[in-house]
Model the fold of this input.
Amino acid sequence: MKRILLGVIGSLLALLSLSKAQDMAVYECVEKVVMSEEIVFDEEVNCRHIYHEECMNSYVTKFKSHQRNECSDQYKKKCMIVYDPVPIKIPYQFCPKKDFCRNLTRLTVKEVPREMCSMSLGKKCEEKPMLLPTIEAEEKCLEVPKEVCAIVQSNPRPVQKPVIKTWCPSLDSNDIRDCGDVLTVVGSVMYQTGIHEFPIGPPESNRTIRMDCDEDGWSVIQSRGQFGNRENYFARPWLAFVNGFGVPGMEFWLGLENMHLITNSKNYSLKITLEDTDGIVDHAIYTEFKISEKDRYALYVNGYTGGLGGDSFSYHSGFSFSAVDRDTDAWPEGNCALRFRGAWWHGACHHGNLNSFNKNTNDTGSFADSIVWRDFRGYRHSLRSAKMAIKVLN
Done:
């Protein structure tokens, strides 16, 4: 049950790492500061004054004399005296007898004077002088001074100046075959480590491969490490090693056929990076590396330089690649790949094998059947990680 649980956890970790490893490097346009040659001059400003006429209209109010006929209404009153008959009662006494009288009235007419007037309308006109305003335009012109300056250049000379230019790297060329070519095209500032895709073989084949680009333009063709895989992840038949398997950036084998095509197109060097279980890292570098003889994929390696890791690879130069199901080694007593659990360029059998079981321990309890490098940590120390990377020999 415990083994099954560990296997499930390992598979989940592998899937998460696979998702991360499959992110391809993306190169975007950037602004770069470059030096550009420009011609500069000594400059002197010469100025002088010129005059030009500027005119403008102004408006003036003027008054002109004018005779205006003014008329007014006049009313004339005409009156006359008329007599109106007005009946009035006049009292009187009527005495028919002596000592007997009565007061009576009699009606009579009396003319009462009354004034009667009538109005007649008339006009009285007379001429009066007056001033009428008028607006007249007047143009006024002035001589206005103006300063005119000119820049006079002298003493031309070239100088280097920093300028900002937008630069977009193009990785579409069929000539870009490995990480070193990418570094050459985009430059060290723009270069990105990580997964890149490259054409391989003749252009008409339209084949591509994916490789992990390491620092300084190194193309990783083989890598081992702790990514949750089972310890026998590299225990595979001959055909798998011919075609390649794994995930770039994790445990990965580019494939003998691809290695053959690449290393026979240019002169490559090889860098092997080793890390033990204590985290100590060392390198072994070879100036010449090639996989030849397409049917047997023999190894050619030469020009070892390196650190404390030592040379545990030159011994294998000249031997064909040997797998568990295809024994091409020089050991008369059996199959080295089967005996030491890893396909490799075995002689009789190996001084170092980076394709064997991944045990990640400083004492395997067995001999030479894990990721070992004799001259680094011996045959019983299974290394934590190992990496093989190639780069064109400069």
